[in-house]
Amino acid sequence: MAIRPIDIARKLNISTSSLRHYEDWGMIPKVERSASGYRIYTDEHVAYFECIRAMANGFGIWLIAEVLKKVMAKDVDSAFWLVNKAQSSLHNEKIICEKTMLSIEETSAPLLSQNDKREYLTINEISKETGIPVTTIRHWEKVGLITTPRNKENRYRLFNKNHILQILVIHALKTSLYSYPYSLDGIKKIIQELDYNNVEKVSKIANDFQKHLDQINRYQMRGVQYLYGLCEKLGLVK
Q1: What confidence score (pLDDT) does residue 111 get?
Q2: How many CA atoms lie within 13 A of 208 on its CB side?
Q3: What is the pLDDT of residue 140?
Q4: Is 86 in contact with 59 (CB distance < 8 Å)?
Q5: Which contacts (CB < 8 Å, 24+ apart) does range 198-202 have?
Q6: 23-27-30-34 Cα dihedral, nearest 10 degrees
Q7: Residue ranges for the chain with pLDDT beneath 70
Q8: pLDDT at 238
Q9: How many CB atoms lie within 10 A of CB 210?
Q10: CB 53 within 8 A of CB 83
Q11: Which segments of 6-64 are extended strands (E)?
Q12: Which of 7, 103, 167, 169 has the smallest number of CB atoms closer than 10 Å to its CB?
C-alpha cells in the first residue's frame, strides 16, 4: 500500500523535504512514481526512514548513507563493520576522557610515571601520552590554541607536562562542541583564562565531555537497534 510523504514526515517529526534529501542521497531503495508523478512510498521505505532518524544523532549522515547502501546491496556484514568502526572511535574518545580525568587527579605529574624525570617531551611523546594525533596537535598550535617553545639547536617543539592536561582539555572542549557552546574563539578564551590548579573548573569540562560521550553512546545503541531491526524486516539476518 502506498504511503503519503506527509504521513511519514509527521510520524518521524521531520519535513517532506528531508525525505526527498534522503532519497537523493541514495539512502533508501528506489521510489516508484504514480501515473500523476507522485512518489509511492512503501512500508519498506518507512523502515529505512525510521532507521535513518534513529541513527542520525549517533552517526554522521554520510556514514549512515554508506551503511544503508551496503544494506541495500545485501552486504550486511560490511554495513555492520562500518558501524562497529564508528563505535570503536567513540570508545577511543572515552579512553581520552579517562586520561583527562586522571590527569586532573594527578596535577602534580599528569599521566607521566613518577620515575619519569624528563623536563620536556617531543611532539610524538606528547601524542602518545594523550592519544591525540600529532597532526591535530600541530594544527592546534598553528591556530593558537597551544604555544610551545622550540629547541634552539634543532627547532623541535618542546612540550612539558602541563601541556598534557592542556591538550586533553582542548580535545574535550572541541569534542563536546555540538552539545556545549564552545567555538574556536571560545576555546581560546577558556584556555587563556583557565587556571589548571582550579580542579573544579577543569573537572567540569571533563565531566561535560563524559556526559557528551555517554549521550552519543546511547544514541548509537538506539541506532544499532533500528539498523538490526531493518535488516530483520528485510530478511537479511535471522
Answers
A1: 46
A2: 20
A3: 92
A4: yes
A5: 199/104, 199/107, 202/104, 202/165, 202/169
A6: -30
A7: 1, 107-118, 177-183
A8: 86
A9: 18
A10: no
A11: 32-33, 39-40
A12: 7
Question: Within 10 Å of residue 50's Cβ, how many Cβ atoms?
Answer: 17
Residue 127: per-residue pLDDT? 95
pLDDT of residue 227: 99
pLDDT for res 152: 84
pLDDT at 118: 58
Q: Are 219 and 211 in contact (CB under 8 A)?
A: no
Q: Read off the amino acid at residue 54.
A: A
Angle subtended at Cα 167 by Cα 188 and Cα 56, rounded to the nearest 5 degrees? 80
| Domains along the sequence of the chain with CATH | 5-75+220-233 (1.10.1660.10), 86-216 (1.10.1660.10)
Kindly report the length of the chain. 238
Query: Cell triple for residue 136?
Result: 591535530
- Residue 107, SS3 per DSSP: coil
Smallest CA-to-CA distance from 216 within 182, 181, 175 is with 175
pLDDT of 182 reads: 58
Give the DSSP letter of residue 196: T
Within a 13 Å sphere around the CA of 80, how many CA atoms are in the beta-carbon half? Answer: 11
Rounded Cα distance, 168 and 129, in Å: 10
Q: What is the dihedral of CA 192, 197, 200, 202, to 10 degrees?
A: 50
d(CA 47, CA 230): 6
